[in-house]
Amino acid sequence: MNEIIKAMKERRSIRNFKSDAVPEEMIEQIISAGLYAASGRGMQSSIIVAVTNQQQRDQLSELNRKIGGWKEGFDPFYNAPVVLIVLSDKSRPTGIYDGSLVMGNLMLAAHSLGLGSCWIHRAKEEFETEDYRAFLTSLGIEGEYEGIGHCVVGYVQGEIPQAPERNDHRVYYVK
User: Fold this and answer.
1) What pLDDT is attached to residue 82?
2) H-run or E-run covering 68
3) Can you tell me the distance from the alpha carbon of 6 to that of 102, in angstroms, rounded to the nearest whole number?
4) What is the pTM of this model?
5) Nearest-CA neighbor of 27 among 65, 57, 61?
């Protein structure tokens, strides 16, 4: 089977990570794959903020927990040491789609390198707060961006889940 199709079929969302650091060269490979995602009119308007600083990662996790409504102490990033935040330019009509394609590439790239990943939502709500708009400004990011998702990445703790059977009646042919 083609390696790309195999990765698409085998990649699963991971919700239990080891705290071990991921080598920077692996993070760079994952980010590079994300940057090669298709985008509307080839505009490449989505951006990635790579968070490996433990304090910043924990602050993101805590805000995400509060937005999600979980009890104190829960980590919605499942202990993953790397958070790749995907944001899209609000002025682009295809921004959400473009950012979603970036997320898909990030997750497939992580899997291909033997790492786990999971798409964590609530980036939209986080980056609507003044604190996180200021965070972007502190990084030199100008413009209006919408949070698409957090791709959390790390080494898998435990077994990779098996894919469930695919539902019937999802493909219709017109010949």
Assistant:
1) 98
2) helix 54-68
3) 19
4) 0.97
5) 57
First-last CA distance in the chain: 26
Mark residue 115 as left, alpha or beta (left: phi above 0; alpha: psi -120 to 50; beta: remaining). Answer: beta
pLDDT at res. 136 = 96
| Strands laid side by side in the 116-120 sheet | 47-51, 82-89, 145-154, 116-120
CATH class of residue range 14-154: alpha beta
Contact 76, 70 (CB under 8 A): yes
Structure-block tokens of residue 158: 């435990």
Q: Where are the domains of the chain?
A: 14-154
The answer to whether 11 and 162 have CB atoms below 8 angstroms apart is no
DSSP string, 131-160: HHHHHHHHTT--S-EEEEEEEEEE-BSSPP
In DSSP notation, 82-138 reads EEEEEEEETT-TTHHHHHHHHHHHHHHHHHHTT-EEEEE--HHHHTTSHHHHHHHHH
Residues in the chain with pLDDT < 70?
A: none
Q: How far is CA 62 from the centre of its chain?
A: 17
